[in-house]
Amino acid sequence: MKDEPVVHLRKLAEFLGCPFSSEEEKDEVLEGIVELCSFDNLSNLKVNKVGKLPSGEDYSVFFRKGEVGDWKNHLTTEMVERLDRICKEKFEGSGLRF
């Protein structure tokens, strides 16, 4: 996903039943969406630099390095197992495999 975000955005839109039109592709709408949703763009928004959660924490707590596999530095084995169970349960019958 990280290497080819436009390809995966297109697949996601098709999966959701909302494919992009050839005109949208020609107008580089997908590239614009990828840029707007990029880690660099989102982490640099003013609200994410100065905003606070109701608990008082900075919004920056939602942003990490954005590197593949970095979750291993933040989640315990128990957390990973619980997340795996939840994903399997929620996506049961969807055709997605984990």
Architecture overview:
The structure is a single chain. This protein has 98 residues and is mainly alpha-helical. The protein has one domain. The chain has helices at residues 5-15, 22-26, 29-36, 39-43, 46-50, 77-90. The radius of gyration is 17 Å and the shape is extended. Residues 1-95 form the Sulfotransferase domain. Keywords: Transferase. Belongs to the sulfotransferase 1 family. This is Sulfotransferase. It holds the Pfam family Sulfotransfer_1.
What's a quick, concise take on this entry?
One of its GO terms (molecular function) is sulfotransferase activity. The chain has 98 residues and is an all-alpha fold. 49% of the residues lie in helices and 0% in strands.
Features:
98 residues, mainly alpha, 49% helix, P-loop_NTPase, transferase
Taken from the alpha-carbon principal axes, the silhouette is extended
Number of domains: 1
Number of separate strands = 0
Say what oligomer this is. Answer: single chain
Could you list the spans in which at least 5 consecutive residues all have pLDDT below 50? none
* Ends apart, CA distance between termini: 15 Å
Helix content: 40-55%
- What percentage of the residues does DSSP assign to strands (E)? under 5%
Rg, alpha carbons: 17 Å
Q: What is the arithmetic mean of pLDDT?
A: 89
DSSP helix count?
Answer: 6
Question: Major sheet: size, sense and barrel closure?
Answer: none
